[in-house]
Protein: DUF4031 domain-containing protein
Amino acid sequence: MTVYADTPRWPRHGMVWGHLISDTSLAELHSTAARAGLPPRSFDLDHYDWPERARPGLEAAGVRFIDAGELTRILIRSGLRVRLRDRAGARARRSADHAAQLGLTPVPRDLIVGLSGHVDPLPSAQDALPGAFRMTRDDPSAPPRIEAHDEAGLRAAEQLLDHLDNLSRAAGQAGFRGQVLVDGS
Structure:
């Protein structure tokens, strides 16, 4: 059992990111990522995204560094890979499962309850529908991080957060912890 990382080369959020995978199990991957200090929010269906500055923690956790092509081949052989064409379906199933946990209807385009994983990015202003937003809240006592291109998106995020908080409290939680992406109207 080995956990592998490639060289960061994908820019996002002002940083350059790489991928971290396991050749055998997601449990091993989660355990190694935690030892390396990666936040659970970095998990993306079959891998963790990691910024360049995390390399010392990954090295200390025993991660083996390889090139991106070999990393992809190992992930395919592991049976853990979620193919690009299957990712939207995997996210939809995850969203439906998480919405069902809360009793939330309708199901948003992408929803995560809890701290493990992240939803798709908010589409650009030219590609997003009015009212689209992406919201993250890791601590129910703190305000959420809301990304929206218009006032309709900000209002929709605040309304959904209120509803999610009520559903979460009814389920015995302090409030909503998670992430959601809504397409808009």
